[in-house]
Amino acid sequence: MARAVRFAIDAAANALRALSFDQRMAAGLFAAMALLPLLSPVFGGSYLLLVGERAMIFAIAAISLELLIGAGGLVSFGHAAFLGIGAYAAGIAASHGLGTLSVALPAALAASALFAALTGAIAVRTRGVYFIMITLAFGQMAYFVAISLAPYGGDDGLTWPGRTLVLGTRLLESRTAFFYATLVFAAATYVLVSRLIASRFGRVLRGLTDSETRMQAIGFAPYPYRLAAYIIACTICGLAGFLLGNQVEFVSPAYMHWQRSGELIVMVLLGGTGTVYGPIVGALAFLMLEETLSRLTEHWKAIVGPLLVLVVLFAKGGIAGAIEAWRRRKMTPAQLLAELGRRAREAIARAGHFVREVTAASRQFARRLAASGSARLRQWVAVLRRWLDALILLARRGAAEVGIRAEPWKRALWRLLESVVLSAERGIAAALDRWRRR
Amino acid sequence: MSKAILHLRHLSKSFGALKVTDAVDLEILAGETHAIIGPNGAGKTTLVNQISGAVAPDAGRIMFDGRDVTALPMPARAHLGLARSFQITQVLPRFTVLENVALAVQACSGSSFRFWQPAGPEDALNAPAEKALQVAELASRAHTLAGSLSHGEKRRLELAIALAQAPKLLLLDEPTAGAGAEETRHLIGTLNGLKRQYTIILIEHDMQAVFALADRISVLVEGRIIATGCPQAVRTNPRVRAAYLGEAA
Predict the structure, then answer these.
(1) Which terminus of chain B is less hemmed in, N or C, by CB atoms within 10 Å?
(2) pLDDT tens digits for range A236-258
(3) Same domain, yes or no, for A240 and A310?
(4) Which of left, alpha, beta for A360 (phi over 0: left; psi -120 to 50: alpha)?
(5) Whether residue A365 sits in one domain with residue A318
């Protein structure tokens, strides 16, 4: 018995060693997700599984988008259209009594592939900003078509009669079964896309991103490879749409809106392009941010926005890029923690320094303001004041929204924001006063 | 060594009012190393771009290996056996040296619409690639990222990629561009070893390289070929001397 266990452990260790870092990270993520149903009775109940399902579904969409962005250099701003197309195709099939796995899933994939082939045939001829714009246009086209689909709910969306039947059973109605179904599909997508990227085809696709001129000179015409990649990626996103529709038993045009496409891009960038596990991390991180911040305030996007700017500025490769950078420095976890602590202290010190600098500068500015008296400056100051007033209002409303019973740190956060803005406001008011007295 | 593998007939190209290629007639014989020289701005690279298919000529014909390829795009010409290197290095920076060359092998061996098997360990791609790297004397750097090579090494990689295509005609656009004196001497040595096995068009500024390698030389001035012949004849041609020394013949 002990020998069998040791043998199993050895085999697992060997298998793990044979995997690349990317594969190990993905395996770890999927294994952690697989444990979620065990945790759910303790934390969050079925809500935890709901979030997990959503994360896996968006991980599928993000991985498929990574195939386009990371490997193909094609930033699609209409990728979410395929979430909707997959969900609509399966939903429409279901509303006609064809909600079985053997019909609904192929319908979702085929509809996505078809729309991808038609739009991709044109879009893939362009590059860069033009590709972004044309995919955005096609995505919005799909969105407006869905709105005008009156027989299938139009603007209000289409409620599915139920989840897709598997071999005539309601297997997917079970929370656990559906959760594992999304997990298996996500893992399969990961394997498929990472093999694709390493294959002959993937090499050509990546080569075209590196230097199109070189690839043409050795005999690769870019168009068929890019079109094939586009169709494959969009079909996989159609799978995510099929699952998303199943999860909520509903589909609406909102699935296809360009903001959703933007969120998919954010997931890929946040997780880190150039890796296949990155988009999974990105989807998880984005959804967790959404979950926690949207409870804090309805203006949660105002926090995600600056956060993304920080990621793009300071961690170009996203989360995966940061992990890669630390890995290259070959640190042990303890060293890593120490390093993180040091950096945090440094950042705090720098922030303090920054605040002092800004205070000094603003005082100086106030003095200068008092000394001068130009009308234009006065206008600018008025605009600044109005803006600060709005911020104060936001901070107070945020504090009110959080309520008295909220956790102390949330209230503290809002109060901090309020006091910072108030002091800035007071500084300007004082400057204006001095100015007027002159 | 008598049959022409490439035949340019009255090739013309203008950028606006500037005639970059002016009714060029040129025959490249199978097996020869043919250098095209000329002062800066003579239109050498534009000529190469038309031969390789990167730029379409306004008029004239390009016959390659008995076929009219004037209308064929660059990838199709590559498949016919026309390989080129670039004056401004064009390698795939995020691929290793070996992968760069293996991709060139892949382009001419089997379909690239294979989605499942990893290409990295494929011996049918790596073995010819390694051979090409050995010829270009870059085998020791096979697993380095191409983006982190030195400039001279990148020039060698350009050569290895072209060799891996098993070309009928090698178009080398200034293979020694930007390389130091030592590196240039070294590259000339490598090219000298190749010149009997391949038909080569050599665009070059470095006269040392040209006279060491070329069987025949064509001189391009202001889009026109003013002289073609063996190195000795070209060296003593008064019009060539005038073009290079800037005095009336």
Answers:
(1) N
(2) 999 999 999 999 999 999 999 99
(3) yes
(4) alpha
(5) no
